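Friendly challenge for the regulars: who can give me the structure tokens for this chain first? No prize, just bragging rights.
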Amino acid sequence: MKMILGLLQTDSGTIKVNGETVRYGQNRTNRYMGYLPDVPEFYGYMTPSEYLRLCGEITGMSSAGIRKNQTNCCTWWDWIRKINAFTGFPEE
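First reply, four minutes later:
Bragging rights claimed.
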């Protein structure tokens, strides 16, 4: 999957998505894909905001779009924490 997204260099061969060649370090072809892992991979060295920025950059989102979605997601998670505390669910 990382090779298809251009996050890992291929050893040989070519990967094409929608007729375009996937190139390591570029994200042009990622606009054609959606990926929802069954187990999300979070990087311990990144803050939640940095992780959201990475996700936005991978999909080619504009800087303004990334900032807006970072704010929306962080606000949403804050509300989830408050609701869980109110209803007695543990915070995660």
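Helices lie at 48-58, 63-87. The chain has a mean pLDDT of 79. Your move, everyone else.
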